[in-house]
């Protein structure tokens, strides 16, 4: 029973390994794999499983006891709590921890620069429009990539359409 909780690896090494891997994965998902965070397809699940397995090997080292695993899990949970607390408490940290909203369609026009930066194709965005009951980009007031990776689509309201057509009429 004692061997279940006995440390075979230095607790300081476990804290360092857990912290290094946590921050590496945090930065990877925050800056590189952002778009994939909001939706999980088959390839996304595969990536998560492979990353988890690779990270486990790097974090655990030769750790074999329950105590070592508990310390490692507590380290990861602690960093996660700390990041959430900092983002809630300080707006400057929230800007670092959570990606901002990115305009993809603005006033019925594609924002190609942002689409290219986020590696989103026109076909992918058209799919999102269809899922929101829209067929034409001109029917979209705003489409935005949200911080959680989802794409929100806002249609023109009837008032917006009325104002839009009134400003286009000649003589007004």
Largest sheet data:
4 strands, antiparallel
The residue-averaged pLDDT reads 79
Structural class: alpha+beta
Counting structural domains, the number is 2
Query: What ranges have pLDDT less than 50 throughout 5 or more consecutive residues?
Result: none
Helix content: 55-70%
- Reading the helices and strands in chain order gives HHHHHEEHHEEH
List the total number of helices. Answer: 8
Overall 3D form: elongated
Number of strands: 4
Give the spatial strand order of the biggest sheet: 2-1-3-4
Strand percentage lies at 5-15%
Report the C-alpha radius of gyration, rounded: 23 Å
* End-to-end distance: 86 Å
Q: Strands, helices and their partners?
A:
Blueprint: H1 2-5, H2 11-31, H3 42-60, H4 66-89, H5 91-97, E1 102-106, E2 109-110, H6 112-117, H7 122-131, E3 140-145, E4 151-155, H8 158-168
Antiparallel strand pairs: 1-2, 1-3, 3-4
Helix pairs in contact: 2-3, 2-4, 4-5
């Amino acid at each position: 029973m004692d061997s279940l909780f006995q440390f075979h690896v230095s607790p300081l090494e476990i804290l360092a390994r857990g912290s290094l891997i946590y921050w590496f994965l945090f930065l990877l998902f925050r800056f590189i794999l952002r778009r994939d965070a909001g939706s999980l397809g088959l390839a996304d699940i595969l990536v998560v499983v492979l990353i988890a397995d690779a990270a486990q090997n790097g974090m655990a080292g030769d750790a074999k006891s329950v105590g070592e695993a508990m310390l490692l899990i507590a380290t990861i949970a602690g960093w996660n709590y700390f990041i959430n607390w900092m983002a809630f408490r300080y707006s400057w940290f929230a800007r670092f921890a959570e990606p901002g909203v990115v305009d993809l369609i603005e006033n019925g026009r594609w924002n190609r620069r942002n689409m290219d930066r986020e590696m989103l194709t026109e076909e992918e965005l058209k799919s999102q429009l269809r899922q929101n009951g829209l067929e034409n980009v001109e029917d979209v007031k705003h489409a935005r990539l949200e911080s959680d990776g989802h794409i929100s689509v806002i249609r023109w309201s009837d008032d917006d359409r009325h104002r839009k057509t009134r400003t286009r009429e000649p003589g007004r």
